[in-house]
Amino acid sequence: MAGMMELRRMVMEGSPYVFVNQIVGTGMDSRIDTGIPGNDDSLAFDLCFSFDQFAKWRAVFGNYISEDTNCWRLLQGGSDDGKFYFTTNHKAGSSSSLVSGHDTVVGKVVKAHLEYLRLKLDIEGQVKTGVRSNPPDGTENSTTIALGSSRVGAGGGGTVHTTWYYARISKGGLLVRDYRPCMRKQDGKYGFFETISKTFCPSIGSEDFRVSI
User: Measuring CA to CA, which residue among 79, 34, 32, 26 is closest to residue 57?
Assistant: First the structure.
């Protein structure tokens, strides 16, 4: 609610940004750094996105650095038959599927709620949940969490264009990041406007966000 009130206030006061329904990141490297360290089990993420194609092992966010470290990550995995699964874990070397056996989600809007070892997916009204019981056993990883469509938290996979509708991060139940797609009027650059810090966040990767492909 606070985020929506901030957006309305900015519109009334003549914001330097134009808010849009979605932005698109390329699978090469369109991402932002949230500034949130990953070594916190009280974090929760609400992400709304869609893919334009299927690709194995393509992450949409995470703070993966090696197979021996604990991490957050949400990635699209799958087999050669075109099925997919989403997986998340705190131990990269022992990743387990939390939601699996689905047909491809290409072209469908995915709403993901991710907590410590717990994932809920709403795929255009079809809800699937998964829970992983075993705790992490890797090295602590305080690397900050990236959000986008680069290879954050995954190795390999082809290019995937990820369309973003919103992203929110909570810590201990308190909203600490609220990302809304927008365009900066000054230079026409697309990115996220973070409503809590009132900060514009363009891609820090090698590829910019776009309004469409």
Answer: 79
- Name the pLDDT band for 154 (thresholds 50, 70, 90): very low
Domains and CATH numbers, the chain: 24-167 (2.60.120)
pLDDT of residue 61: 82
Reading the block at residue 129, the tokens are 């949940």
**What's the whole-number average pLDDT of the chain?**
78
What gap in Å lies between CA 33 and CA 54, rounded to an integer? 25
Whose CA is closest to 178, among 63, 45, 62, 59? 45
What is the C-alpha separation between 162 and 164, in angstroms, rounded? 6
Measured CA to CA, the distance from residue 48 to residue 34 in angstroms comes to 16
Strands 110-115 and 31-37: unpaired
Residue 122 has pLDDT above 70, yes or no: yes
Contacts of 207 (CB under 8 A, 6+ apart): 25, 26, 28, 29, 30
Residue 181 has φ and ψ, to the nearest 5°, of: -65, 140
CB atoms within 10 A of CB 158: 11
Strand partners, 33: 146
Picking from 18, 45, 84, the residue whose alpha carbon sits closest to that of residue 168 is 45
